[in-house]
C-alpha cells in the first residue's frame, strides 16, 4: 500500500522543533493509563470465566484470542483512518468504539452466554487498537527524535500504572470476594457494573479529547501519492516480529499467573489472593518504565532492550526448573524486565520512517496479534504438559527480543 505525503502540519513529525509539548504529552498519558487498565482486566476475566463456565485453559484463553485478534483485523484499516483524519481525531474515534465495546458487556452478562463476552471484547479491543495506532506515534513525534524511546517509555509507565491498579479493581468488583465462581453464583451486575463505569469514562474522555487544543499531526494529503512504503524498512519488519513475540509473552505470563501461583507446589494460594499478585507483575513493569525513561537518556535503547530480555529469559528458566517461592517470585520479576520492552521496540522500529510513520505504527499494532496467538499455544501446552512447562514459549520469545535489541534494530532501508 503506497503511503501519502505529509501536509504542512504533519511535516512536524519528521522534523520536530523545540515546541513545548508538555500539555499534549500530559493529556496523552491518560490514554495509556485507561487502555492498560482495560487490558489487564482480561487477566482477571480468564480465571473467573474459566470457573464460571467450566472451561479448559484453551477455551478460557479465547478471551485473549478475541481481544488481541482485533489488533490483527483492525490495525491496517486504523492506520489508513488515522492517516486521513489525524492523530487527535483518531484518538476520539478509538475512545468511542472502546466505549461501545464496554456497553456490550451488559447484554453479554444478562444472557450469561460466553460467546457474547468474546464479541464484546473484540469490539472493545478494536477501539483500543485505533487508540494505539494514533497515540504511540503521536508521543514519538512530540519532541526530539533521539529521545523518542525515553518519552514513549515514560508515557507507557502510566499504562503500567493502569495494569497495576486493575487487578485490585477486578478482584474487588468482579470477583466479589469469591474464590472459584460457579454457575448461578454471580448476579448480572457483577460484570455489568465495572464495564458500564468504564464505558462512561471512555465516552467522557472522547468528549474531552474532541475539544482539546493539541498539535494537528498525523494527517496526510490523500490527493498526492509517493512511491515506497513502510514494508521496505528491515528494522520495522523485524520490530513487528518483536512486538508479536513480546505481547504474546507478556499476555501469556499474565494469563497464567493466577493458575500458576495457586498450584500446591508453587504458592498454594487461593485464586482471590493470587489475583493480587498480578499487580506485582505489572507493578514491576511500571517501576521499570520510570527507571528506564531516565536510563535511556544515557544508554542506547537497543542495548537496554537486549539486557532486559536476557534477564527475562533467565528468570523464566528458573521458573520452569524450580518450584515453591523461588519459581513464584522469578515469574513475578519478569514484569520488571518487561518494563521498557514494548515502547523501546516500538520506537526503534519506527525510527526514520518519516512519512511512513502512520503506516509503520499500523503494522506494529497489527503485530500485537501475538497476544492472541501465542497465549493460545501456551494454553494448549498447559492442557497437555502442565502450566509450568508451558512457560517455554515466552522464554523463546525473550531470546528473539534480545537478538533484536542487539542486532536486528539497526536501521536498514530494505528488507
From TrEMBL:
<feature type="transmembrane region" description="Helical">
    <location>
        <begin position="61"/>
        <end position="82"/>
    </location>
</feature>
<feature type="transmembrane region" description="Helical">
    <location>
        <begin position="195"/>
        <end position="215"/>
    </location>
</feature>
<feature type="transmembrane region" description="Helical">
    <location>
        <begin position="114"/>
        <end position="135"/>
    </location>
</feature>
<feature type="transmembrane region" description="Helical">
    <location>
        <begin position="156"/>
        <end position="175"/>
    </location>
</feature>
<keyword id="KW-1003">Cell membrane</keyword>
<feature type="transmembrane region" description="Helical">
    <location>
        <begin position="236"/>
        <end position="258"/>
    </location>
</feature>
<dbReference type="InterPro" id="IPR036259">
    <property type="entry name" value="MFS_trans_sf"/>
</dbReference>
<dbReference type="InterPro" id="IPR005964">
    <property type="entry name" value="Glc/Gal_transptr_bac"/>
</dbReference>
<protein>
    <submittedName>
        <fullName>Sugar MFS transporter</fullName>
    </submittedName>
</protein>
<keyword id="KW-1133">Transmembrane helix</keyword>
<feature type="transmembrane region" description="Helical">
    <location>
        <begin position="89"/>
        <end position="108"/>
    </location>
</feature>
<keyword id="KW-0997">Cell inner membrane</keyword>
<keyword id="KW-0762">Sugar transport</keyword>
<dbReference type="Pfam" id="PF07690">
    <property type="entry name" value="MFS_1"/>
</dbReference>
<feature type="transmembrane region" description="Helical">
    <location>
        <begin position="387"/>
        <end position="407"/>
    </location>
</feature>
<keyword id="KW-0812">Transmembrane</keyword>
<keyword id="KW-0472">Membrane</keyword>
<feature type="transmembrane region" description="Helical">
    <location>
        <begin position="278"/>
        <end position="298"/>
    </location>
</feature>
<feature type="transmembrane region" description="Helical">
    <location>
        <begin position="28"/>
        <end position="49"/>
    </location>
</feature>
<comment type="similarity">
    <text>Belongs to the major facilitator superfamily. FHS transporter (TC 2.A.1.7) family.</text>
</comment>
<dbReference type="InterPro" id="IPR050375">
    <property type="entry name" value="MFS_TsgA-like"/>
</dbReference>
<dbReference type="InterPro" id="IPR011701">
    <property type="entry name" value="MFS"/>
</dbReference>
<comment type="function">
    <text>Intake of glucose and galactose.</text>
</comment>
<keyword id="KW-0813">Transport</keyword>
<feature type="transmembrane region" description="Helical">
    <location>
        <begin position="363"/>
        <end position="381"/>
    </location>
</feature>
<feature type="transmembrane region" description="Helical">
    <location>
        <begin position="305"/>
        <end position="323"/>
    </location>
</feature>
<feature type="transmembrane region" description="Helical">
    <location>
        <begin position="329"/>
        <end position="351"/>
    </location>
</feature>
Amino acid at each position: 500500500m503506497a503511503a501519502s505525503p505529509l501536509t504542512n502540519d504533519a511535516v512536524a513529525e519528521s522534523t520536530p522543533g523545540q515546541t513545548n509539548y508538555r500539555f499534549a504529552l500530559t493529556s496523552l498519558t491518560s490514554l495509556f493509563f485507561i487502555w492498560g487498565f482495560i487490558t489487564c482486566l482480561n487477566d482477571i476475566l480468564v480465571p473467573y470465566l474459566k470457573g464460571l463456565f467450566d472451561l479448559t485453559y484453551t477455551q478460557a484463553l479465547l478471551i485473549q484470542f478475541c481481544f488481541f485478534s482485533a489488533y490483527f483485523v483492525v490495525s491496517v484499516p486504523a492506520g489508513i483512518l488515522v492517516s486521513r483524519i489525524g492523530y487527535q481525531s483518531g484518538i476520539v474515534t478509538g475512545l468511542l468504539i472502546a466505549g461501545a465495546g464496554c456497553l456490550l458487556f451488559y447484554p453479554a452478562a444478562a444472557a450469561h452466554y460466553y460467546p457474547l463476552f468474546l464479541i464484546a471484547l473484540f469490539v472493545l479491543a478494536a477501539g483500543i487498537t485505533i487508540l494505539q495506532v494514533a497515540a504511540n506515534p503521536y508521543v514519538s513525534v512530540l519532541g526530539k527524535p533521539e529521545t523518542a524511546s525515553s518519552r514513549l517509555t515514560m508515557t507507557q509507565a502510566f499504562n503500567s500504572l493502569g495494569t497495576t491498579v486493575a487487578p485490585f479493581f477486578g478482584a474487588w468488583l468482579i470477583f466479589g470476594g469469591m474464590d472459584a465462581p460457579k454457575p448461578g453464583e454471580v448476579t448480572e451486575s457483577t460484570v455489568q457494573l465495572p464495564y458500564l463505569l468504564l464505558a462512561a469514562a471512555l465516552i467522557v474522555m472522547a468528549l474531552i479529547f474532541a475539544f482539546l487544543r493539541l498539535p494537528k499531526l498525523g494527517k496526510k494529503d490523500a490527493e498526492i501519492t509517493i512511491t515506497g512504503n513502510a514494508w521496505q524498512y528491515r528494522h520495522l519488519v523485524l520490530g513487528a516480529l518483536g512486538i508479536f513475540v513480546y505481547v504474546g509473552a507478556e499476555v501469556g505470563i499474565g494469563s497464567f499467573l493466577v493458575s500458576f501461583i495457586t498450584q500446591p507446589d508453587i504458592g498454594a494460594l487461593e485464586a482471590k489472593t493470587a489475583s493480587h499478585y498480578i499487580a506485582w507483575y505489572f507493578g514491576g513493569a511500571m517501576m521499570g518504565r520510570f527507571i528506564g525513561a531516565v536510563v535511556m537518556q544515557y544508554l542506547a535503547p537497543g542495548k537496554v532492550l537486549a539486557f532486559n530480555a536476557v534477564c527475562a529469559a533467565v528468570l523464566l528458566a528458573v521458573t520452569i526448573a524450580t518450584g515453591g517461592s523461588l519459581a513464584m517470585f522469578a515469574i513475578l520479576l519478569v514484569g520488571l524486565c518487561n518494563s521498557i520492552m514494548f515502547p523501546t521496540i516500538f520506537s526503534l522500529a519506527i525510527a526514520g520512517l518519516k512519512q511512513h510513520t502512520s503506516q509503520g505504527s499500523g503494522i506494529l499494532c497489527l503485530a500485537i496479534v501475538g497476544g492472541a496467538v501465542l497465549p493460545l499455544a501456551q494454553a494448549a501446552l498447559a492442557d497437555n504438559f502442565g502450566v509450568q512447562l508451558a512457560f517455554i514459549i515466552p522464554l523463546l520469545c525473550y531470546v528473539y527480543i534480545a537478538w533484536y535489541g542487539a542486532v536486528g534494530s539497526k536501521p536498514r532501508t530494505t528488507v
